[in-house]
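Weekly structure sync, notes
Attendees: PL (lead), two postdocs, one rotation student
Agenda item 3: pending single-chain targets
PL asked that the sequence for the first pending target be pasted directly into the notes so everyone works from the same version. It is reproduced below exactly as submitted, 87 residues in total.
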Amino acid sequence: MLEGTFEDGTGAPAHAHRHEEAFSGLNGSFDFRLGDNAWTLGQGRFVFVPRVVEQGTHNSGSTSGQALGIISPGGFERLFEKISSLT
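Predicted structure, written out during the meeting:
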């Protein structure tokens, strides 16, 4: 599980993973694309992302926004631990 803050105008370009993900908007407004579907992910909204389905998100608000992410199976958090040790 991770919590991320995204400045306005930032996000993640289209990509896919071998793991499953789920996201919940904590605050702010995110344009979210999952496969051929697109919508706005705002506070309290939830989205499940199956494996190998292309996804992308962009903070479409005028302020920073926060989202909670859950990744399954576990282990992906080690990537963030490695990245944080580089700084």
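Discussion points:
- The mean pLDDT is 92.
- Residues 2-85 form a domain with the Jelly Rolls fold (CATH 2.60.120.10).
Action: rotation student to compare against the earlier draft before next sync.
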